[in-house]
Amino acid sequence: MTATAETTAGSRGSQPPVPDGAVTVTVKIRRFNPEFDDEPRWDSFDIPALPSDRVLNLLHYIKWYVDGTLTFRRSCAHGICGSDAMRINGVNRLACKVLLKDLLQKGDKQTTITIEPIKGLPVNKDLLVDMEPFFEAFRAVKPYLVTYGNEPTRERIQSVADRERFDDTTKCILCACCTTSCPVYWTEGSYFGPAAIVNAHRFIFDSRDEGAEERLDILNDIDGVWRCRTTFNCTDACPRGIQVTKAIQEVKRALLFKRV
Amino acid sequence: MQFHKYDVVIIGAGGAGMRAAIESGQRARTAVLTKLYPTRSHTGAAQGGMCAALANVEEDNWEWHTFDTIKGGDYLVDQDAAEIMAKEAIDAVLDLEKMGLPFNRTPEGKIDQRRFGGHTRNHGEAAVRRACYAADRTGHMILQTLYQNCVKHGIEFFNEFYVLDICLTETENGPVCTGAVAYELATGEIHVFQAKSVVFATGGFGKVFKTTSNAHTLTGDGMGIVFRKGLPLEDMEFYQFHPTGLAGLGILLTEGARGEGAILRNASGERFMERYAPTIKDLAPRDIVARSMALEVLEGRGAGPNKDYVLLDCTHLGAEVLETKLPDITEFARTYLAVDPVVEPVPVYPTAHYAMGGIPTNIHGEVLRDNDNVVPGLYAAGECACVSVHGANRLGTNSLLDINVFGRRAGIAAAEYALSRESHVDLPENPAAAVEAQVALALSEHGQERVADIRTELQATMDANASVYRTEDTLKTALHDVQALKERYAHISVQDKGKRFNTDLLEAVELGFLLELAEVLVVGALARKESRGGHAREDYPNRDDTNFMRHSMFYKQGEGLTADIRLDYKPVTFTRYKPMERKY
């Protein structure tokens, strides 16, 4: 089905004025609402957009002016909250961090942008998936500082170098871009997935933490780090630039050599 | 309809809500209801730091922090509350460190500290290094650390449960809070949560403005619910505009950039803050910097093709400082404006950022029903609350402090109150009726008005008429516009009629709260015929302590979106600081 902004049945009233410099793009979206649909389908929308627009702006245009039933999560709109992970032209991205100008076709060809829900998690409605299995894996790796004995009165001392050791993995926003780009996760849903391992890494390599062994035991499990086939999809997908595969390798090495 | 019973119900899972939950959950049976997944909350967008007089890198003490907070708030701060916040700041930071927060470190391995706007040594002598930070993602690290600790303590979350009402039971001593009513996004089902105490921690309402650093989801739900119950809101005319939003977009660039030495320049390259705040220059409080920037633009010294912004110059900081201490904002500028801060200055302009006002509470987080009495069992903390530690203008970093200090206090107080009650007070009759009616009405066919149109027009008039500078005329225009939009809201149409994840319905409900709160803001701004902190009236350019050294208290008169607003006043609490002229 192709619906344009002007002709969609559900559309009400006039569209907002088209800004100078706008181009028409086709946004093709994977739709599925189990409340009413038996099967997923593709809907296409031809809409005006500025090259500086984020893909999230395009989705909002459709939701606000063409089809109010289009459903997705979003919040901060600048890549910090991790709500709007989706497959954009086949790769996992945050919709608020992809600009249209980077997707435009060269020449006069009209651009088509394909948007699907992230893979490997049950689709609840359109682009919105059930995040519970993802967070369950996160919670399973003891993602918090584990310490024993008395707490110091002031802060724990940590050298600049020790703090730097796990800096990369503290950037994780739990958007699931990495985990749902992983072919192992697609086929073996029981695999913890990259994000959970990243968050385990964040504590295993924190000099203040005393829970590394407990966590490594968990990750040594049949569904743990050994499932990783070093595909690097996760690293490519991370909107925060975390070296995800490297972090997983470091956890594997810690298991092999029993030290961090 | 589903029914649940808890000791404590916390509404909202940002910094304040989760800090409260960590305290409450270890003491009493606690549920956290949140319309987002906890880690999506906007605490995570805070960047620069959290101030506490740790004195890790230079001499400092909490009394100086107290003074800075009070002066920064243009003396509308309740001084007892500011003193508590500054004093407890030190433990608040140390608690976070012990929970695992990865602060940046000094060469000795202690928590590092950086300069921030309005935070000074010895009552204004010079900028002081007081802000504890984790690169420019301090809020992200706070949110993650608090969530991690909620996981550790097994806190029970109800994710994507949108609270639409609270239950107040009338007793001979006035109303008592007995629960909350939530709409479950996944199913469209209504849930009633009976509780001995309820804590609001729902954040701000920045989405009344177009240009804002706030998330789409910051629609003032908690404040709106309280207001609709006939309970007061305080100081709503005081809204902070953060000086450095990415021009045209409003995305936040931390004040920590200036804390690290970045400089604001106008079109001719002049460091204009030297004229407005000769002592601390670019590190003056946000209200002063935002007004200075707006004046530069109004007087024709703005940069860019339309001369409508100024420039944040970070180029002299060097790539290493930017990549290690300010990596996120460096990336924002590159991603969204295609400007590389390492080699060129970044276009910036003030962006709507933070509500100083909110649900009035005392220092235990108990919600006031008038100037003297609390609503037993009802608490609030964080941006949705007004203690008031921010007065007329919040200092940078004090919001992350506020959520930790008063989130903790509210969590403890709510749990202890619940434990002191033997049994639950009965819910009012048909506690879900109002919410069921509200949802049914929104889904019924009663008009052709589009939610997005009304919201867009609301944001446009608020940006144009109730922003950094205000006058009687602009505010009257805004009031007229908002009231007209409220009339149109009665005819909205929601296209999605389903029960499953109906975010179309959600946006319609949120817009109702935005309209409500926008009007309160404008009514307060019209009545306050003076300039103080974040409220700048061109027609009344001076602070007027004789008539306006007092908090505003807003009450909704009657039912319905268009009901009148009654304005009352509440005295400011003074301890040791006398109001002075505010110079930096």
UniProtKB/TrEMBL annotation, chain A:
The keyword Cytoplasm does not apply. Residues 1-14 have a biased composition (Polar residues). It comes from the Bacteria. Keywords: 2Fe-2S, 3Fe-4S, 4Fe-4S, Iron, Iron-sulfur, Metal-binding, Oxidoreductase, Tricarboxylic acid cycle. One of its GO terms (molecular function) is 3 iron, 4 sulfur cluster binding. The keyword Transport does not apply. InterPro entries: 2Fe-2S_ferredoxin-like_sf, 4Fe4S_Fe-S-bd, 4Fe4S_Fe_S_CS, Beta-grasp_dom_sf, Helical_ferredxn, SDH/FRD_Iron-Sulfur, Succ_DH/fum_Rdtase_Fe-S, Succ_DH/fum_Rdtase_N. Pfam families: Fer2_3, Fer4_8. GO terms for cellular component: plasma membrane. Its cofactor is [2Fe-2S] cluster; [3Fe-4S] cluster; [4Fe-4S] cluster. GO terms for biological process: respiratory electron transport chain; tricarboxylic acid cycle. Belongs to the succinate dehydrogenase/fumarate reductase iron-sulfur protein family. This is succinate dehydrogenase.
UniProtKB/TrEMBL annotation, chain B:
The modification Tele-8alpha-FAD histidine is found at H42. Its EC number is 1.3.5.1. Coiled coil: none annotated. Residues 455-584 form the Fumarate reductase/succinate dehydrogenase flavoprotein-like C-terminal domain. One of its GO terms (molecular function) is flavin adenine dinucleotide binding. It is found in: Membrane. The keyword Membrane applies. GO terms for biological process: anaerobic respiration; electron transport chain; tricarboxylic acid cycle. It is a peripheral membrane protein. FAD binds at residues 12-17, 34-49, 221, 383, 399-400. Belongs to the FAD-dependent oxidoreductase 2 family. FRD/SDH subfamily. It catalyses: a quinone + succinate = fumarate + a quinol. Its cofactor is FAD. GO terms for cellular component: plasma membrane. The lineage of its organism: Bacteria, Bacillati, Actinomycetota, Actinomycetes, Pseudonocardiales. Pathway: Carbohydrate metabolism; tricarboxylic acid cycle; fumarate from succinate (bacterial route): step 1/1. This is Succinate dehydrogenase flavoprotein subunit.
